[in-house]
């Protein structure tokens, strides 16, 4: 009986870390970058560009590799490079989720830009719980919207994606319509991990309770 209790404790301890595996590929941006048409895009990530969003100031979205927290991060630039309008970002379809579990979606980001709400600026991060690849889809849940909040240093953000999906698309959206200010967003440490199953914690708890009872006897 003592051996069984010890085994339960060990199983719980060993099994729990397996639940925390990050499903996002190159989420910390330490897995390298590639040059795509003169832009620098993190490996395993896709990019989108809406083309000309304001005919008066035609432009395109730009992508850089910059310093992260720590190491490297992806910068998305959507404004005022030689008076251009922009709209675009990086995204990744993440699959392999356990549809019976909620998932914790977290990342670090910083933004720079104007506080003028009339500039048509967008600096957003979100997810599409249907795993779609349309940046304008109404299914996207925008969890960060920093359209006119000015400059902000690195922030950590975390939210829970409800159970019920096996694949989500992580979206970033950066842009400006009237190029009145430099606009960019950096992103690092993107993570999507399932919330540990209650059964794993229950087994660990049962093992610990058994040991505690043994000590009292
Ligand atoms: Ca990094």
How would you characterize the overall build of this protein?
The protein has one domain (22-196): Jelly Rolls. The chain is 15% helix and 39% strand. The chain contains two helices and twelve strands; from the N terminus they run H-E-E-E-E-E-E-E-E-E-E-E-E-H. The chain has a five-stranded antiparallel β-sheet, with no helix packed on it. Strand 4 (62-67) and strand 5 (72-77) form a beta hairpin. The longest helix is centred in the last third of the chain and has 19 residues, at 198-216. The model has no long low-confidence stretch (mean pLDDT 89). Bound molecules: calcium ion. Calcium ion (CA) binds at residues 28-30, 68, 71-73, 188.
Strand order of the largest sheet: 3-6-11-8-9
Residue fraction in strands: 35-45%
Give a count of the beta strands, DSSP E runs of length 2 or more: 12
Q: What percentage of residues falls in helices of 4 or more residues?
A: 10-25%
Mean pLDDT value: 89
* Alpha-beta classification: alpha+beta
SSE series = HEEEEEEEEEEEEH
How is the main sheet built? 5 strands, antiparallel
Total tally of structural domains: 1
Radius of gyration: 22 Å
Q: Any ligands, ions or cofactors bound here, and which?
A: calcium ion
Keywords:
single chain, 217 residues, alpha+beta, Jelly Rolls, five-stranded antiparallel β-sheet, 2 helices, 12 strands, 15% helix, 39% strand, elongated, binds calcium ion
Short description:
With 217 residues, this protein is α+β, with helices and mostly antiparallel strands.
